[in-house]
Every structure is written in structure tokens, then in C-alpha cells.
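Readers of this paper often ask what the protein records in our data store actually look like. Below, we set out a record of this kind in full and without editing:
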Amino acid sequence: MQNEALRALQRLDFRLESKRLLVHAIHESRRYLWSRGQGAPLSGSRDALLARGASAADIVQQAMLLTINGSRPWDQEKYPDIVSHLRWVIRSLISNLASSADNRQVQVQDEQELELPEAAVLRDSAGPQADELSRRVQEAIHDDPQLVKVFERLQQGGKPKEVGASMGLADKDVYRLTQKLRRRLAPVLTAGQGAI
């Protein structure tokens, strides 16, 4: 199969198809939120960095290399022509890169500056429904004192980064706790939607 893939690549009008594949890679990369450096979004250019310092052109080259060396073997029954296969590999590589820790880590840092939507909903609720909702929330988190403290500070309008600083927690610990809080509050808020 490796030799067949190499022969099929050699038969291509490489100048034309490599440009088409590059356009495909740029198009696919626009489906995701990319952060790099200071969180600059992908501009969509050929040389714009996605994550791990890779550009759309790098993804195209990697797709060809993986196909040639057999790491991403060409299934001729599924993809009769090599270009369709390469488009699939490019899509897969970009998807994997978008969900990589290198891309998420920057987004996590940016998220520390934002108020949790769950805390805002609870803080802005008023009246008897809000009291009932607050009781259910306390019931959902009462067994974890650290989570209760985080929730109270978020409900008072604190941002995750501020909560971490006031409690002496690292950003990753605050992120972990806010994710845990979201999981615990999801059923409560879903059940309380009619009450809000």
C-alpha cells in the first residue's frame, strides 16, 4: 500500500493539488478556536500558527509524510483517490491538534479571567425561586468544603483567577475545581431553569 500511495502522489499535478490541500487545511483550521502566544486567533494565512508551532502548510506536509510512510495508510476502498485520503488525514490532524493540551492550555489561562456563567445565573436570581435554587446548590456541593468556598467567592462576583489568589491555589487547581463545580451544578441548574 505504501508504494501505491507514493505512486499515486507522484502522478498528481503537485503544484495544483498541494495548493488545494493547503486551502483545505486552512478551511478546516477555521472550524476551531486556536490560541497561541498571547491567545492570538488564527488569521487563516498559510503561515499562521495553530498549536505546537504548526502551520496549515506543515499539516499538509505531515499528511503526505504519514501517508507515504504508512502511519496513515491509504484505504482505496474508502477513498478511491489519494487526494480524498489526504483531505481526511488533514482533517484528522487538525482535529487532534485543536484538542491537544498545547491548544487547551492557553485557553484555560484565558478562561481564568472570565466569570463562570453558572455563578452569574445564581447571583442574578432573586425571590423565592432563588432561595430554593440556592438551597439545592448548597445541597449539591456541601460535602466538599473547598468547593463550597470556591462557589461562595464566585457567587460574590470573583473571577477564577482572583479566587485562586485569595485561596492560595494554582490556576490549574482553580480550573479543576470550577470544572467540578460545573459538573455538580449542571443538574441543579437544568432542573431550576423554570424557576429562574
